[in-house]
Design goal:
Blueprint (H helix, E strand, L loop, with lengths): L1 H11 L14 H18 L1 H9 L3 H11 L3 H15 L10 H12 L3 H5 L24 H12 L3 H9 L8 H14 L13 H14 L9 H15 L15 H15 L3 H14 L26 E2 L6 H11 L2 H9 L8 H16 L4 E2 L2 H6 L1 E2 L2 E2 L8 H15 L1 H11 L1 E9 L5 E8 L1 E5 L6 H8 L3 E3 L5 E2 L6 E2 L1 E9 L3 E7 L1 E4 L4 E4 L9 E3 L5 H4 L1 H11 L8 E12 L4 E9 L7 E6 L2 E5 L4 H5 L3 E8 L4 E8 L2 E10 L37 H20 L2 H18 L6 H15 L10 H14 L1 H13 L2 H8 L4 H22 L12 H5 L14 H11 L13 H11 L3 H9 L2 H10 L32 H13 L11 H8 L5 H8 L4 H12 L3 H17 L5 H16 L10 H15 L1 H12 L3 H9 L1 H11 L3 H6 L1
Parallel strand pairs: 1-2, 7-12
Antiparallel strand pairs: 3-4, 5-6, 5-11, 8-11, 9-10, 12-22, 13-14, 15-16, 16-17, 16-22, 17-18, 18-19, 20-21
Length: about 1100
């Protein structure tokens, strides 16, 4: 044993970090085999087990190996070996856990304080790792895994002893639970919202506490346990604000999962805890000021990028503006100056305000991208607002924007001058006299040629090249007044802090008279030396003279670092801009990002040459003729269009940066780009409140629309109530309320909802098990129409609407036995004399005794309030009412009693009330103006026609007479020109049910049948171009007569009535009428006989005399 433990002790000693990685046969392998041997030996020998715990320095090397060792593989090997040791089986087959779990756990708990003190490594300190691998360095993840497993494996008798007599037990479970809970509450907020590193200490404490609670210590149901529950809930759902940016405590997926598991254990079998959590969760799933959620919503897709920056939405062709704004925003000096600018009485005030809103959003928002529409509305270029569908040149927009910034406020003018404004000196030096002509020109961007140039230095040589003026091109000296030889040269007199280059990729071809793009290879350096292009180098004599006059400083820096590139991909006529920008905030230096409209992601600067230099690229293509792969070269269309360089700081002999050139020192942002705070600057309260109000809603949405949360709610609504049911029988109603609220208010809105069917089954089971839950559900919707409107009317997903319809039907069927007798009950305040005459009672006084009928009345009222705007979604709405009417006689009578028929007719007709055919005799025909076609599909109203036809038929009494109210009968069978029948036939909605409705109305009423056929005939005459639906209803009516469906003697013979009017229709649309007759002759004996008997009246007219050849051919 001493020899074996000495190997482990030696392996645990600190060594040079460079020796940790020693190839395949490293320390992890040594520890692995040593621990495997130790485990095997201890399983075989009781003496060896005792000797291990009594060996010197056992506690020391065990702590080093499970906690302090910097190599993850070593920690993992030791912890897994200890776990195997504690849960192993001896050679004789005896389980060893009773003898080793408790002592080993007691030993490991001595290191708990050390483990708690360990925090996550800083993001910047962690090198790029393969996914799933831990970084090097001491860590507590494996330690907490081991302790939690051992707690979970404690023997039942030891747990019982610990809870009954904690003083004399090896492990005090309740005391340990209290200690862990206090540690959890006092732990600092170490996880960040973006680029977060898991806090293994926090996750370990949560998992350990979860396993302790599984043993049901008194702490669970104590006041401290309930307070812990509230705090853990806040770990998950506390919303950050400008003053509390660090909340909630759990931000990483692993820590949030651990918190959810802890909440589940805290409420398991504890009714009071469940009620506390139930109340908090229910608040999260009730309609609020920002409800409803969009359909197919998944906010994680719209969250701020992991790199911590926000993009800009492309509104059509605004990529030039997005690229320009991101370059400006990523310059800490410009960003801070714009946000700090005073907008009062400034020029271009609306533009400055919108620019501040945009930058504040990019700085603070938790969303993926900002929509710049409001900025485009106020920004003018060439005296016109920005047209979001028109692409502009980015260089032109950049100069225009910088010029406007310079005019806005004096402070911004100073910053713009320092950052972007340089001076170009154009010099003409006479060779025949001492005179020098010099003009100074300010610039914001330097235009550099690309055509016939290999790189940026060659292009700068072209800008500053010396040109000799002689011969015919001699220069006229302004002072001498005579022709002299001279040298002309441009050079940079003053360089700005940010040097911007516009590569002239666009040229005008004088042969084709078209604008073209130059795609040739053009390189540029990461560090640019401008020393060879300044006045000091090119014209030293004149530079020295100016220096003596202006007392300029001796030290000047001419080196620049590349900080941004805007790439244009496409042609001269159109394309797309995107940018690569270097992050210059402390802690993120030398990191590059791609800004492509709304997308922001890391970029490898080693790829700048491939992405930005242009030129040709070669690919392999297969030549079927030679049966070989050939090299195929083509020009890249993506190349750098604008370059941004920043002056390097002057490094003093001591190695520090000179304050004179470190312009950003006073205006720089905080270390973390997403920490959204500026060192010496705060956003205005108005901007801060505006952004953080949106942030809080969005973060809340991200917390809720998450699969981990959905799984948690599944346990809280489904599994946990079953553990409480034996103690609290009423728990099912509470659970059903939470299930229904979560399901309807949140879950069905999610884009990703794979467990939809399971949730429907769960809610259905809960309603089956609890009648009070059914009553609550219907009462809730009867008093508040939010759910029916949002789901049944507004939801674009048909599957969701059908699910809601079936759920409501199921609930009503569950209540039918106990509530059906109450459907037609009249309010008590109605006099007895009126109660006998049902027709005299107002619908509002009927059906108020049952939640079912109150809900149905609420649904019917939606036809007057909101349903019209969602006509294409109404199939399930009317389908539900129809299914309700089919449940039984009481349901149909109730719908008739509350005037459902005339409500539906009134809803359907709406403004169509005047679009009908007048069949009144003796009056002149009125001109009917056809209404424009509706935008919705009338097919969604099929069930409405079916319901009306069904209710009309069910209204018959024992004498087979219709017992419709005056309003209902008037709605379907009266009115000038039968507007309801006319309109639904014209709209071609469910004509089979329309036929059934006409049969029901006309049974025993031959005069009504005659009037309806007359209306159809006149409709054909008026609408000859769209008469097809009217002929179709005639076919259905005559077919029913031929088949004997109207076998009752009280049913009129529709065939005879139709044939009386057919020639009138034939005068207006002869071809359709004759075609209809030709079809009916073969189907209907009455029609066949009538046509033969009346041949004299139609044969000559239509076969010979008619002017239309198509009609003659049809005959």
């Amino acid at each position: 044993m001493p020899q074996l433990t000495s190997i482990l002790e030696e392996a645990s000693l600190p060594k040079d970090p460079n020796l940790y990685k020693t190839g395949f046969w490293g320390r992890a392998q040594v520890v692995h085999y040593a621990m495997s041997f130790l485990v095997s030996w201890l399983h075989c020998s009781e003496d060896a087990r005792q000797a291990l715990f009594q060996s010197p320095n056992f506690s020391v090397w065990l702590q080093r190996l499970v906690l302090e060792d910097p190599e993850p593989a070593v920690r993992r090997e030791v912890c897994s070996a200890v776990y195997r040791l504690c849960l192993g089986v001896s050679a004789s087959g005896d389980v060893l856990e009773s003898s080793l779990v408790a002592p080993m756990l007691s030993e490991l708990l001595l290191y708990l304080d050390k483990a708690e003190s360990m925090g996550p490594q800083k993001f910047e300190a962690i090198p790029a790792l393969e996914e799933g691998k831990e970084p090097y360095g001491p860590a507590c993840r494996d330690y907490f895994w081991l302790v939690a497993r051992l707690v979970d494996s404690l023997p039942e008798d030891l747990i019982k002893e610990s809870l009954e007599d904690p003083q004399n037990c090896v492990v005090d479970i309740n005391g340990l639970t209290n200690k862990i809970a206090r540690s959890l509450l006092s732990r600092d907020y170490l996880e960040t919202r973006h680029r977060t590193i898991d806090d293994d200490g926090l996750i370990g404490l949560l998992n350990l506490l979860t396993n302790l609670i599984k043993h049901r210590p008194p702490f669970q149901v104590s006041k401290q346990g309930q307070e812990l529950l509230v705090e853990v809930f806040n770990f998950l759902f506390a919303l950050p604000s400008p003053k509390l940016r660090h909340v909630p405590k759990c931000k990483s997926p692993r820590s949030r999962t651990a918190s959810y598991d802890l909440l589940v254990e805290l409420v398991k079998g504890a009714p009071q805890n469940y009620y506390i959590l139930h109340e908090k969760l229910l608040k999260q799933h009730q309609p609020g000021p920002h409800s409803p959620y969009p359909w197919d919503y998944w906010p994680h897709e719209d969250g701020r990028s992991e790199c911590g920056y926000v993009g800009l939405t492309n509104l059509g062709a605004t990529c030039y503006m997005a690229s320009c704004m991101q370059h400006l925003y990523m310059m800490p000096q410009a960003r801070a100056s714009i946000l700090a600018a005073n907008t009062e009485h400034s020029k271009h005030e609306p533009t400055l305000k919108e620019l501040q809103r945009m930058f504040a959003y990019l700085l603070e928002s938790e969303r993926k991208a900002y929509n710049p529409r409001s900025f485009c509305k106020v920004y003018t270029m060439d005296h016109q607002p920005l047209n979001t569908a028109e692409q502009k040149d980015m260089a032109e927009f950049f100069i225009d924007l910088v010029s406007k910034l310079e005019e806005m406020t004096p402070a911004l003018k100073t910053v713009v001058k320092k950052l972007f404004c340089g001076v170009l000196s154009n010099n003409v030096v006479s060779l025949d006299c001492d005179h020098v002509s010099r003009t100074l020109e300010e610039f914001y961007t330097v235009r550099c040629q690309v055509a016939d140039m290999r790189n940026l230095y060659e292009s700068l040589d072209e800008v500053t090249v010396k040109d000799t003026l002689e011969g015919d091109n001699m220069y006229t000296c302004s002072q001498c007044g005579k022709k002299v030889r001279a040298e002309k040269r441009a050079c940079f007199k003053k360089l700005p802090h940010i040097l911007c280059f516009n590569t002239m990729r666009y040229t005008f071809n004088m042969l084709t008279m078209l604008k073209e793009k130059v795609n040739t290879h053009f390189s540029f350096p990461l560090r640019l030396n401008m020393a060879g292009y300044v006045e000091k180098q090119l014209m030293p004599q004149h530079y020295q003279e100016d220096k003596l006059k202006q007392y300029e400083p001796e030290d000047e820096q001419y080196e620049y670092d590349l900080i941004g590139v805007t790439v244009h991909t496409g042609t001269a006529d159109g394309g797309h801009y995107y940018s690569f920008i270097k992050d210059r905030t402390a802690g993120s230096r030398d990191k590059w990002f791609l800004f492509n409209d709304a997308e922001v992601k890391p970029f490898d600067p080693n790829q700048i040459a491939a992405e930005c230099f242009g030129g040709e690229m070669t690919s392999k293509t297969y030549d079927s003729v030679t049966d070989k792969f050939m090299d195929f070269s083509f020009e890249k269309t993506n190349s750098a269009y604008m370059l941004f360089y920043e002056r390097c700081p002057i490094v003093t002999p001591e190695g520090s940066e000179s304050a004179s050139t470190a312009l950003e020192s006073g205006d720089s942002l905080s270390n973390h780009p997403s920490s959204s705070s500026i060192a010496t600057f705060e956003l205005s309260k108005e901007l801060e409140d505006w952004i953080w109000q949106d942030n809080m809603h969005f973060i809340q949405d991200k917390n809720i629309f998450e699969h981990t949360y959905f799984n948690f709610m599944w346990q809280i609504c489904g599994y946990i109530p079953q553990t409480i049911l034996p103690i609290e029988p009423d728990i099912t109603q509470k659970a059903a309320q939470l299930s229904t609220s979560f399901f309807i208010e949140t879950f069905i809105h999610a884009k990703e909802k794979p467990t939809m069917v399971q949730w429907v089954e769960l809610v259905t089971k809960q309603f089956n098990a609890c009648q009070e839950a059914c009553i609550w559900f219907l009462e809730h919707m009867a008093n508040d129409t939010w759910w029916p409107v949002q789901v049944l009317l507004k939801c674009p997903n048909q599957m969701v609407r059908q699910m809601f319809q079936r759920l409501c039907i199921h609930v009503i069927q569950r209540l039918k036995q106990s509530h059906s007798s109450l459907y037609l009950e009249i309010d008590r305040d109605i006099p007895a004399s009126l109660k006998e005459d049902n027709k005299a009672i107002e619908p509002s006084k009927i059906g108020n005794a049952s939640c079912v009928t109150k809900f149905i009345k609420t649904l019917l009222s939606l036809m007057e309030h909101g349903a019209k705007a969602h006509l294409k979604h109404l199939t399930e709405y009317f389908g539900f009412l129809y299914e309700f009417s089919k449940m039984g006689e009481e349901e149909s009578k109730f719908l008739l009693a509350v005037g459902a028929i005339h409500s539906m007719v009134h809803f359907y007709l709406g403004q169509k009330a005047n679009d009908f055919v007048d069949v009144s005799e003796g009056e002149e025909e009125e001109e009917v103006v056809a209404l424009p076609n509706d935008k919705y599909k009338p097919a969604s109203l099929d069930k409405m026609i079916t319901l009306i036809a069904s209710l009309v038929e069910k209204s018959r009494d024992s004498n087979v007479k219709l017992q419709l109210s005056e309003k209902d009968y008037g709605a379907v069978a009266e009115g000038k020109g039968f507007p309801f029948l006319y309109q639904q036939i014209k709209d071609n909605i469910n004509l089979q049910q329309t036929r059934n409705l006409i049969h029901s109305l006309c049974r025993g009423n031959n005069q009504l049948a005659q009037s309806i056929i007359c209306m159809i005939s006149q409709a054909i005459s008026r609408h000859s171009d769209t008469s097809q639906p009217f002929f179709k209803i005639l076919t259905l009516l005559t077919e029913s007569t031929a088949q004997g469906s109207g076998g009752s003697s009280s049913q009129p013979c529709f065939t005879q009535l139709v044939l009386q009017k057919v020639w009138e229709a034939a005068e207006c649309c002869p071809y359709s009428a004759l075609d209809w007759l030709a079809l009916q002759v073969t189907r209907n004996r009455l029609v066949h006989q009538w046509v033969l008997s009346s041949m004299d009246s139609w044969l000559e007219h239509f076969l010979i005399a008619h002017s239309n050849q198509r009609v003659r051919n049809g005959m």
